[in-house]
Write a structure and sequence with these properties.
A five-stranded antiparallel sheet has the order 5-6-7-1-8. The protein has a two-stranded parallel ribbon with strand order 2-9. It has a two-stranded antiparallel sheet with strand order 3-4. A hairpin with a 3-residue loop joins strand 5 and strand 6. The chain is elongated, with a radius of gyration of 23 Å. The chain contains twelve helices and eleven strands. Helix 6 packs antiparallel against helix 12. Helix content is 49%, strand content 15%. It has two domains: 176 residues, no CATH class; 160 residues, no CATH class. By secondary structure, the protein is of the alpha+beta class.
Length: 344
């Protein structure tokens, strides 16, 4: 078996507390360097928490791909752990989990931290201290051993906070998607599109601020925004369109193929893309159109993709604004959520 630390996240060792209003995140400051397990456990109990179990708490398990756990060690320190039979399968799990957490729950890992998945030579022991864990890391070149220990020693303590509730929900989606590689690939493409232009916003912000501010922008101001961000818009748009291609399971499709491909998706995933209409929130600023048959909006974006990005046209007859970027990201997300989690 192969063991990988999923870097860039700081999972909470405590489950959420059940309240009369649902669940609330369990917060307790990290361990003091001089704190013992016994003192730490007393702090948990004093705050009304049961001390977490050491070792693995499994959140995902698949006989073909492996498992995802929160690993508790030392004085209740934690990291995400992936255990799999091969490197390829471990990365399939890790990249899929990161994309789900990032695009659906807004929990992106802290960037620039050495590597996203760090392989260990053997199974970690919960009795180890942080320094001991770093010695399990699959060795770099001999001259990099000092860096291997000192750098990771600091990195493993950093990352985006992750609650057990968020991880549990993400893993439930992963269970539904694990045997749908085209869908998982589409989610990963949306994650990358977001990294170029982050088009997600909560509904309250859209209604109270963005939609009103956007209507007031002059054509001159819109042009300046486009000129500043053209490459990012093009890249984010094309990446999201690749996600649409992944869901339709056909790269470089033509306009007259879209209806047949949507019918095939409906048959495979029990969706209704051929009959339902998509509600636009951003495209309406450009096209004035609010409701779209899925076939029509995909056809419209295919024409844009071909005009702007597919051929590297430096003087395209049409341009891609943030309207189209935000909207195609939302379209892609709505489609894979309809396949995986229609109740949401």
């Amino acid at each position: 078996m192969k063991y990988f630390i999923v870097n860039g996240y700081r999972p909470n060792p405590l489950p959420p507390k059940k309240t009369e209003h649902g669940y609330s995140e369990s917060h307790l400051s990290g361990p003091d360097e001089k704190e013992t397990i016994k003192k730490r456990a007393k702090r948990y109990e004093k705050a009304g928490h049961k001390p977490p179990a050491f070792g693995e708490t499994k959140f995902f398990k698949d006989k073909n791909y492996g498992r995802i756990s929160i690993f508790v060690y030392d004085v209740y320190r934690t990291f995400l752990l992936i255990v799999s039979r091969s490197q390829r399968k471990a990365y399939y799990l890790g990249n899929s989990l990161r994309a789900i957490l990032s695009t659906i729950f807004g929990q992106s890992p802290t960037e620039g931290l050495y590597a996203f998945q760090i392989e260990l030579n053997e199974k970690p022991d919960f009795k180890m201290e942080l320094f001991g864990i770093t010695h399990l890391i699959r060795p770099l070149k001999k001259e990099d051993k000092y860096e291997n220990v000192e750098l990771i020693n600091n990195i493993l303590l950093r990352g985006t906070g992750l609650s057990q509730y968020q991880l549990e929900k993400a893993c439930k989606i992963l269970v539904k998607a694990i045997d749908k590689p085209q869908v998982l690939y589409a989610i990963q493409l949306l994650e990358y599109s977001y990294s170029q232009v982050y088009g997600f916003m909560v509904g309250s912000y859209y209604e109270a601020h963005y939609s009103r501010d956007r209507k007031e922008l002059s054509r001159y101001r819109l042009d300046s925004i486009y000129l500043e961000n053209r490459i990012a818009y093009d890249t984010a748009f094309v990446t999201a369109f690749r996600g649409i291609e992944a869901l339709l399971e056909k790269p470089y499709f033509r306009k007259n193929e879209i209806k047949r491909l949507l019918t095939k998706v409906d048959s495979k995933h029990r969706t209704n893309f051929t009959t339902k209409k998509y509600r636009s929130f951003h495209e309406m600023f450009s096209s004035r159109k609010r409701l779209w048959p899925y076939e029509d909006i995909i056809k419209y974006y295919l024409e844009l993709r071909n005009a702007v990005a597919a051929h590297g046209n430096i003087n395209p007859p049409k341009i891609i604004m943030e309207d189209q970027v935000f909207e195609i990201q939302m379209l892609l997300k709505s489609m894979f959520m309809e396949i995986l989690h229609p109740e949401e």
